[in-house]
Description:
InterPro entries: PDDEXK_9 (IPR012547). By secondary structure, the chain is an alpha+beta fold. Helix content is about 35%, strand content about 25%. The protein has one domain (about 40-185). The relative contact order is 0.15.
Amino acid sequence: MHAGGVFVFIIQGNDYMCELELPNKEILYAYKKEILDKLSNVFPQNLTIPIQEAIYKKDADKLKDLLCKVMINSISCFDYADEAFYHGMLLGLLVTFDSGYILTSNRESGLGRFDIQLKPRTSGLPGVLMELKATKDQTEDLTSLAKIALTQINEKRYDSSLKADGVADIIKIGIAFCGKKAEVSLE
């Protein structure tokens, strides 16, 4: 929730994109209780907390291992198809950051559109930018693809809106996916 008690995130489908606002704390509570709690077997808190810690500590190997654990335990080999699938999966994981962040997806900043941004609600927390890449080619080098995603964040200056809002500490994460595998590059 930001100052007005509203939780904001983007839902993107094949033909549309909309912004969903939960109008008050009561609706947010109901959302958490009825939807997020039911997903706890897919995204258990004992997994989402270590994901937050891996991001804060800038531990690429730990983040990669945790993402792979999520995929191995929750998705079918028929589920993954393209970047949009992994994007949705990450949004589901990152929604647990809501008390400290405003989660946005596919917004313009700098010279393009970032995939995922976590904007801190209070000072002292770092901002987080994520750029995702996905391939179906099992032979493609995921480490290089993750570095390309990270380079894109810097070259397209996706951190511009966070910096304009006074966020000085920004964690930048490039993630590459293929099937149930991932590689992470971050700074």
